[in-house]
Amino acid sequence: MNLVAEVDRQRILDRVKSSGAYHRLLAFSGLLVLMIGFSLASPNFLQTANVINILQATSVNGVLAVAATIVIISGGIDLSVGTLMTFCSVMAGVFLTYWGLPIFVGVPLAIVVGTCCGTVTGLLIAKLKIPPFIATLGMMLIYRGMSLAICAAKPIYFNSTPGFTDISTGTIVGAVIPEIPVPNGVLILFLVSMLVAFVLGRTILGRFIFAMGSNEEALRLSGVNSDQWKIAVYSLAGAVCGVAGILIASRINSAQPSIGQGYELDAIAAVVIGGTSLSGGRGTMLGTMIGALIISVVANGLRILSVPQEWQIVVTGTIIIVAVYTDILRHRATV
Question: Is residue 219 part of a domain?
Fold first, then answer.
């Protein structure tokens, strides 16, 4: 009886370890350890102003990570999320500054641009059968070049658009509760993540996203047109990148044509750290939010400790490798 009980206990433990909940628990524990460690190393880490800086940084990277999560769960990859964010911010500059459109028109139009760009990427992958890695790599270069060309490699400022900076740096919560000056960008991040979580968990698109990531061939054999759903996946991710473009442009009050380079790596890192499987078919928005916070906390903490930027990059790369290896071990445990 004891042997049977021990075998059953081990089976339950293996199932728990292979589940996403276990990975999210590990990530959250890691986040707490990092915050405690940095707060002990520097008294400035938990200062209100610094915590707000961490949240501001997380709002942009977190929204991009949401876009990357959608694609990765479906079994794809998107290397263009960073430069698409930049392109959408540049187009917001065109609409609001060059064309003088009102903010309630220019901002949605920039998000529509992101949606259309995502649709183009989806068509390249679904209809032309270009591998996602190559298609999004090519689109990354296209967005970067178009951003530089449209604004002649110069920033576009939003000084003539009243209220634009409040989108990211304003605080509705702080106006009501001055002791909690949570930036609006963080609220937008939570809103976007909750909406996408609803799509993934409660809609037909969400079910097909997980099905494509788990076994696309079985989905196709069941009579489902996976191509149209794959286009929808990249369109939705593009719309989310448009939101990220608005947030980062609002945060710095300008559209910088080169600012998005490297953001895709942080976004993908946040997704992997949060427990989304690179093989597709598994992932949650909660895990992605934890991963985005870990990336922001590490970057901010190392900066406060005056660690050179090149070593910050080394640390981030190491975290990515450890997270991917953990995902590999978890995948083996389920086989």
Answer: yes
pLDDT per position as a tens digit, 275-308: 898 888 889 999 999 999 999 999 999 999 999 9
Torsion-angle region of 283 (φ positive above 0: left; ψ -120 to 50: alpha; else: beta): left
Query: Are 69 and 288 spatial neighbours (Cβ–Cβ below 8 Å)?
Result: yes
Q: What CATH number is given to the structural domain containing 317?
A: 1.10.3470
Range of the domain at 88: 23-172+181-330
* Run of H or E including 254: strand 254-255
Total domains present in the chain: 1
Average pLDDT in the 223-243 region? 95
- Quote the CA–CA distance of 304 and 230 in Å, as a whole number: 42
Distance CA 207, CA 91 (A): 33
Decide if 285 is inside a domain: yes
Looking at residue 325, its amino acid is Y
pTM of the model: 0.91
Give per-residue pLDDT as tens, 74-114. 999 999 999 999 999 999 999 999 999 999 999 999 999 99
Torsion sign across C-alpha atoms 236, 238, 244, 245: negative
Rounded Cα distance between 172 and 177, Å, is: 9
Going from the C-alpha of 244 to that of each of 10, 11, 168, 238, 333, the distances in angstroms are 44, 42, 10, 10, 36
- Following DSSP, what letter does each residue of 232-250 receive, concatenated? HHHHHHHHHHHHHHHHHHH
* Degrees to nearest 5, angle at CA 67 with 266 and 33: 45
Does a structural domain hold residue 12? no
Judge whether 93 lies within some domain: yes
